[in-house]
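Milestone 3.1: sequence recovery, worked example.
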């Protein structure tokens, strides 16, 4: 993947993509605003969610051990994965041990993060996505572009074409004469997936939350595909980031109010599935929990950046972000797009690649993302923090020198006044575009013209 500016430049030239994104994001955020406005105590819920997450992250070692003990006592098996390679190896070996060569999947950001589908395919195991949007992405050999609605960049006509051309190679073909009616598209997906649900013996999921107190895992969804995957197969394997743990059932109550309103604009999710280990004759007979680090403990060590781990994946920040609305999710080069991806991805992957180093700059710092975040992640603060980290790396010597010079001038009032007067006198002769490294800044915005008279001179003259 190229750096964000290059990828975004291509995306903004795609008129269809921009129209799809604009319509979808405006619709979702307007519905969310109405749903949130129904609760008089939304600010208190938001503060409570932030407090619980912060407490859990400070004591993560304790709650993860408690979770492991509770899951084990309930009949499950816990595996610890330091990185993507280890997590993929664990899941692949667990599936092979069952003798099966296909799995059904609940929508999961963690498994996308580690590239599980590709790892399973290399081992000869087919992984079938069962979420409607994920199915569209998979059939279209595409990548997700939104946390909540992975196929947000596709319109109905494009989806109909994907179903008609690709469904047959993955299983049951699309019905003859399929139109782009939402009802027909949903029915085609339902028929295609139903045979996979009834045949599958192994399922792979993530989890929205894990309750340390009881070892309970929680998945919230709107389609029912998750419920089918979590109850029908004999073996269930859940891959979950270590930050998804909450201490108690009472804490879970807070997030089951925050998440649906902030993501799908619903008072509660149509399907909230909870499971605790295994139970004879009820659901899967074998349960494995893979706890994934993959850079999370590195982020946890950063006092400013760790707040990104509070994220509950609601995607509200994406729907209000002017940069995401125009560039789309693919430009971020990560399974986590938008404002949250701009601060989470560089912490999980580091900032050594051109792409990851560019992500903290993929923002106007308008602060809209912070205003809608249900757990009060100060995304602009973390963006500025990560920008500072990037500029300490090789290749930013001129930028550091320019900032140091600006800091010196701003710290000396007489020198600043002289610079302002000089700029005012030369205002007609100043270039409209900056030279050298500064050209990137003026490629997309006009260089402000200095005023004819500095404010401090105007103030001194008029005050007299």
């Amino acid at each position: 993947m190229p750096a964000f500016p290059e990828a975004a430049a291509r995306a903004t030239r795609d008129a269809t993509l921009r129209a799809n994104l604009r319509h979808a994001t405006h619709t979702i955020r307007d519905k969310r605003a109405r749903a949130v406005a129904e609760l008089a105590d939304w600010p208190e819920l938001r503060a409570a969610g932030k407090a619980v997450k912060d407490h859990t992250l400070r004591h993560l070692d304790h709650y993860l051990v408690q979770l492991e003990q509770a899951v084990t006592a309930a009949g499950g098996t816990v595996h610890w994965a330091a990185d993507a390679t280890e997590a993929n190896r664990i899941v692949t070996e667990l599936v092979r041990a069952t003798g099966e060569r296909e799995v059904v999947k609940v929508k999961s950001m963690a498994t996308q993060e580690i590239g599980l589908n590709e790892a399973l395919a290399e081992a000869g195991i087919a992984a079938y996505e069962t979420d409607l949007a994920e199915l569209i992405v998979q059939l279209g050999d595409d990548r997700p572009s939104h946390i909540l609605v992975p196929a947000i960049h596709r319109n109905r006509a494009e989806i109909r074409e994907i179903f008609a051309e690709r469904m047959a190679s993955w299983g049951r073909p699309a019905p003859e004469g399929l139109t782009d009616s939402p009802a027909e598209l949903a029915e085609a997906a339902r028929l295609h997936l139903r045979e996979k649900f009834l045949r599958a013996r192994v399922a792979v999921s993530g989890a929205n939350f894990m309750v340390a107190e009881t070892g309970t895992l929680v998945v919230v969804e709107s389609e029912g595909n998750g419920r089918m995957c979590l109850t029908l197969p004999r073996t269930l394997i859940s891959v979950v980031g270590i930050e998804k743990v909450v201490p108690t059932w009472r804490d879970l109550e807070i997030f089951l109010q925050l998440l649906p309103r902030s993501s799908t604009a619903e008072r509660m999710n149509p399907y909230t599935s909870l499971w605790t280990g295994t139970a004879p004759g009820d659901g899967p007979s074998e349960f494995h929990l893979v706890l994934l680090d993959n850079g999370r403990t590195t982020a946890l060590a950063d006092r400013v950046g760790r707040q990104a781990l509070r994220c509950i994946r609601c995607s509200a920040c994406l729907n209000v972000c002017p940069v995401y609305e125009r560039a789309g999710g693919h430009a971020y080069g990560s399974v986590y797009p938008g404002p949250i991806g701009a601060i989470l991805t560089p912490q999980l992957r580091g900032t050594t690649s051109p792409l990851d180093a560019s992500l903290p700059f993929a923002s106007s710092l308008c602060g809209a993302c912070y205003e809608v975040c249900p757990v009060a992640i100060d995304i602009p603060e973390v963006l500025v923090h990560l920008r500072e980290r990037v500029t300490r790396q090789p290749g930013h010597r001129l930028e550091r020198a320019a900032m140091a010079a600006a800091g010196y001038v701003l710290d000396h009032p007489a020198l600043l006044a002289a610079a302002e007067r000089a700029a005012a006198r030369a205002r007609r002769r100043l270039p409209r575009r900056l030279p050298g490294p500064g050209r990137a800044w003026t490629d997309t915005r006009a260089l402000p013209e200095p005023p004819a008279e500095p404010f401090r001179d105007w103030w001194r003259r008029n005050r007299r």
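The radius of gyration is 25 Å. Residues 299 and 306 are 5 Å apart (CA to CA).
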